[in-house]
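Hi U.,

Before I forget, here's the chain from the pilot set. I'm dumping it here mostly so it's searchable later in email.
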Amino acid sequence: MNLELLHLCDSLFPIGGFAYSDGLEAATSTGAISDPADLQPWLEAVLDDTIGRLEGPAVWRAWRAVADGDVAAMIQLDEELTALRPSSGVRRSSRAMGQRLLTTWQALHPDVRLERLALLAKEGAIGPVLPLAFAAACASAGVTRRESVEAYAYTRLAATVSAAMRLMPIGQTDAHRLLSRTLERVPAVVDRVEAGDGACESFTPAMDIAAMTQQYLHSRLFRS
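Structure:
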């Protein structure tokens, strides 16, 4: 068991993820998501599309780039992920969480690979976006490439469920039942990520629109 990975994935780890809902708040405010039955398709989209097609492949590629010390690949991936997210709020949140994760993890577990990434961030060459920072932390901790993607999927899905519990009437048991049901499919999604060797693509129009309208809510709990 890798205790460092458990630490990284714990909601206690201070990357500020509690402040972001990735558009779920906007979706609940319009009534598009109002109960556990509505939340299930949203979670499925997070897993299959956001993680399975974009952020999961990014973690897969980033892990290799960090392990190999491939600076050009890190910069290219950071730019690609930023360009593929149409919501400015989501772009900012990914960079903010990525920077905080990198800074905190480097302070706790100094590593030359993290130093290199931190220098690129300081020079403005990268954000880094969250998937890149997460992959870097995993690679430096000796977490395997596949486990890194699986762990990232867990943190993103758990964060979504946590946000839902603050936005809609859903009990802990129902929330964790939905999370457990979705987590059962993570290995199959990671299989596809591995088979595609990290090819990134993005097409989640409903979620993107929700994220882009988040800033116009009269009052809100989350930044995005």
